[in-house]
Amino acid sequence: MDYDLVVIGGGAAGMLAAGRAAENGLEVLLLERNNRLGKKLGITGKGRCNITNSAETERFIENFGKKGKFLYGAITRFTSSDLVRFFAGLGVETKEERGGRIFPANDKASTVVKALERYARSNGVVIELSSRVDRIVTGRESGAVEGVILKNDRKTISSGKTINANETINTGKVLLATGGKSYPATGSTGDGYAIAASLGHTIVKPRQSLVPFDTGNRFVRDLQGLSLKNVEVTVFTGGRKTASGFGEMLFTHFGVSGPVILTLSGQITDDLAAGKTVELSIDFKPALTGEKLDKRLIREFADSGTKHFRTVMKNLLPNRLIPVFITLSGIAPEKKCSQITSTERNNLAALLKDLRLTIKRPRPFEEAIITRGGIDLKEIDPRTMRSKLVDGLYFCGEVIDIDGNTGGYNLQAAFSTAWLAAEACSNLK
Ligand SMILES: Cc1cc2nc3c(=O)[nH]c(=O)nc-3n(C[C@H](O)[C@H](O)[C@H](O)COP(=O)(O)OP(=O)(O)OC[C@H]3O[C@@H](n4cnc5c(N)ncnc54)[C@H](O)[C@@H]3O)c2cc1C
Q: Where are the chain's structural domains?
């Protein structure tokens, strides 16, 4: 046996798992296709790396939707406090910000990447860069893991040994930590799905999540760059309300983005993938009921009887939105407020509470922060991250069919599943 464990993928999950398994005494080989480790981790949190969230367990799990309960074992075994202590032990101090988001104190994702690499190396993990795994070899009779084969034609590894094409690196255990398929330039191109599928695993179709959307409304282009705070966004699927969120959204040159949109994006991509029509309703005045808004409009228009409609709109909306509301409401911009009819006022109120956007499609994987879908949870033991189908095969991180909200949840899930898998591999030595 060349190694006790081969970890495929030197991202967040792979580095932590390799380091931990080596700390537990295993001979570990970590294979990464890029020429450096943690390329995606280095750009997380806009370069600041939101490593985790201080939310207590139940709320933490809720941030992964229906599939969250799969993570219960991992998250309770290696909690966000454990992660903070773990990084402190590696010299990375952290700080907590709004919404329980935890970052390295120096705001540098690169510090996190370096710390994990140090952790792996100092525990004796053999790290091979520019080593893309092609497939996992299993025993013809046993069906158990026997090794891995690289895609590279020929490669000299750090021990000085040369590995030729189709030559097996022998191991009894493989941990698949290849990530999802979003931001493929970071190396996460979905290789793990094909590798696992070739061993009989079911892959829940990968879809983009935490992703912006293209919309079908012309006026959106005129709003490019406009950011709105404190709006309520409701998703209507096939005409039925399916989700809603409150907070900040952004208009882009193609459609919509921003925190509320990203939070709702998992639901929206699922609905679109199922062939359903999806509309977003924006409520610009969520603090006012329809009745209160009507009273406010009556007051505004009464106080400004001789002023033009366009001028008074400044009291109600950001400047950039005014032309859009003038067009959609059909009220002439130069109309005096005293002449606005009750029907016109009602139409305006309806628009302020419910501006509809048609969602066409999610932006591509290149722009999706996370991949929804992946290795089917039914085929993984949640207590060990072990494959239920192939002896010696383990999974961790985004390659699993788990995706969470923004706020540090996804990295904690990657780290917790990695820890659990490393412990399980080590116990079975
Ligand atoms: C722009 C952006 C910002 C983000 N910000 C945050 C944030 O602030 N907080 C948060 O919680 N989450 C964030 N995320 C999500 C987070 O980055 C992922 O959830 C996390 O990186 C998943 O870790 P992983 O180790 O499973 O996969 P990855 O980090 O994707 O690592 C997988 C690794 O496997 C390697 N690999 C793939 N195939 C092979 C192969 N065949 N052979 C060898 N190596 C292979 C890849 O090169 C890669 O290095 C962000 C994501 C993006 C894209």
A: 3-209+368-427, 212-362
If you average pLDDT over residues 83-111, what whole number do you get? 98
Q: How far is the CA of 11 from the centre of ligand 1 (A)?
A: 5
130-147 confidence digits (pLDDT tens):
999 999 999 999 999 999
Burial class of residue 296 (count of CB atoms within 10 Å of its CB; 0-12, 13-18, 19+): middle
> Taking residues 29-50, what's their average pLDDT?
97
| Sheet strands side by side (includes 94-96) | 52-53, 101-104, 94-96
**Other beta carbons less than 10 A from residue 4's beta carbon:** 20
C-alpha atoms less than 13 angstroms from C-alpha of 357 in its C-beta half-sphere:
27
Distance between Cα 228 and ligand 1 center (Å): 30
With DSSP H G I counted as helix, E B as strand and the rest as coil, what are the percentages for the chain, rounded to 5?
40, 25, 35
**Pick the residue with more confidence: 142 or 164?**
142
Please tell us whether the domain made up of 3-209+368-427 is placed in CATH 3.50.50.60.
yes
Q: What is residue 216's three-state secondary structure?
A: coil
SS3 state at 178: coil
CA 14 to ligand 1: nearest atom: 25
Pocket of ligand 1 (CB under 6 A): 8-14, 31-34, 39-41, 43-45, 49-50, 132-133, 177-179, 182-183, 187-188, 191, 369-370, 397-398, 408-411, 414
- Say yes or no to pLDDT of 189 above 60: yes
Return the sign of the alpha-carbon dihedral for residues 289, 293, 294, 296: positive
pLDDT (average), residues 87-102: 97
Q: What is the amino acid identity at position 243?
A: A
Mean pLDDT of the region 330-337? 91
Mutate to test the pocket of ligand 1, among 37, 50, 131, 188 (most ligand atoms within 8 A of CB): 188
